């Protein structure tokens, strides 16, 4: 059995000492993939894969050619050739921007930014929980908050109508330049998904987000009522 972990952005929580225990099992993985352009704020795109057995990459992707022979000296003396480790022969230098990011900020400050995003998720959870018509999917363990608006006026409507209502709220938020949440499906119902990975986010941003969310919800309920009159 091969144990591969798609670490995406979540594996970076290892840099947060207070939440590192959530990913201790990463050390058991045979391979781990993650993206620096997500929770480490590097410019897109910068992905990475760590392998226990690097020889397996070479065995899979290496395609020796007479014009690609390594040498003991000179420009062709690099060992290993990274083009033998993946599908790309011509490779941009993606690692440089990651190196600069780590040199400038360091893993401690990057971990602090990750912790701040997780704390902001808890703050958003508390704001949303104050409203009885907002159902928050729990637990909120890291930086993602999933919730669903179920206004009293449409709470007894067909669940698919409520799904559509939430989807329209997301579109309203995006088109008005307020925020860019996405959607997901949990237990076959549509939820609004807020994934916080921006180091520039502040608590005031979430105050504004919830205020606008409530306003848009009220406006859309009125619009729905008028359409059925």
From TrEMBL:
Keywords: Decarboxylase, Lyase, Pyridoxal phosphate. Its cofactor is pyridoxal 5'-phosphate. The keyword Lyase applies. It holds the Pfam family Pyridoxal_deC. It comes from the Eukaryota. InterPro entries: Aromatic_deC, PyrdxlP-dep_de-COase, PyrdxlP-dep_Trfase, PyrdxlP-dep_Trfase_major, PyrdxlP-dep_Trfase_small, Pyridoxal-P_BS. Belongs to the group II decarboxylase family. This is Uncharacterized protein.
